[in-house]
Write a sequence for this structure.
């Protein structure tokens, strides 16, 4: 059976992720295509920003000459992130001002935000600002230093911009999330911006795929008691979800639509009543 181009490129990215190299001839034989086809796939992945060449150059077999670029992470759990983003966008559709954090899940969320002229989005994510800047919402990018790995704004200028605003809702991703340790990030600079966004908003919505639940990243952003709504997928650990519910967090499970539903609308399962508009006094 012929392998679709998108599946070939996924296979290339997986191989580079595991081995930091690919062998053109072996991969061509494995996938039943010509070596020229694999070379074109590699060139396409480079052009789209999923791969980049490292020092040493590309040999005849592209051996140890490629590494994953940051946006290749968007391919991990892409289906779940898309459903989570769709469900979260529906939940916050009435907000007029929102902070949007960094990460591949929040990027999916941004895709599904309504094109409203009365909506203002404040974000430190350059990919999100670029996406929304061509549409109707007013977009404020934080500015300051740019962290290369995430293309995110960090530092004192970015922090000062967050402090200038107050939002109806902050929609943040997570490197780690648990009831015990709360929302956590991988480094101090990005954690500080996420922390300020949570502090300067009425409602905090955390969106993350199930692989992050029960995990803890090195830097704490905020405690679980501050999280109003958690949107995740149906692979989330039940015991962790129960602990969030017990802590007062509304849990939304974004699952695939059934056969009679429109394919563009995820099924969002929300515990109890709709999430409160404001829990900032907690």
């Amino acid at each position: 059976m012929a392998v679709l181009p998108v599946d070939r490129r996924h296979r290339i990215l997986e191989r580079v992720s595991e081995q930091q190299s690919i062998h053109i001839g072996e991969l061509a034989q494995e996938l039943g295509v010509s070596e020229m086809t694999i070379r074109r796939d590699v060139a396409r992945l480079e052009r789209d920003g999923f791969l980049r060449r490292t020092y040493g150059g590309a040999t005849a077999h592209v051996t140890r000459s490629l590494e994953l670029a940051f946006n290749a992470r968007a391919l991990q759990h892409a289906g779940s992130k898309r459903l989570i983003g769709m469900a979260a966008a529906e939940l916050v559709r009435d907000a007029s001002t929102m902070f949007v954090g960094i990460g591949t899940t929040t990027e999916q969320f941004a895709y599904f935000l309504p094109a409203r002229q009365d909506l203002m989005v404040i974000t430190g994510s350059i990919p999100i600002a670029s996406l929304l800047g061509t549409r109707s919402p007013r977009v404020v990018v934080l500015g300051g230093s740019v962290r290369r790995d995430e293309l995110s704004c960090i530092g004192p200028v970015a922090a000062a911009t967050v402090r200038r605003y107050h939002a109806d809702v902050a929609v943040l991703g997570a490197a780690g999330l648990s009831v015990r340790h709360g929302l956590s990030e991988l480094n101090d600079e990005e954690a500080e911006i996420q922390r300020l966004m949570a502090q300067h908003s009425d409602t905090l919505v955390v969106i993350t795929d199930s692989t992050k639940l029960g995990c803890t990243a090195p830097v704490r952003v905020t405690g679980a008691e501050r999280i109003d709504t958690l949107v995740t997928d149906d692979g989330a650990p039940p015991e962790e979800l129960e602990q969030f519910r017990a802590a007062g967090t509304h849990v939304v499970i974004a699952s695939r639509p059934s056969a009679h539903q429109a394919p563009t609308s995820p099924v969002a399962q929300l515990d109890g009543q709709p999430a409160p508009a404001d829990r900032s006094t907690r």
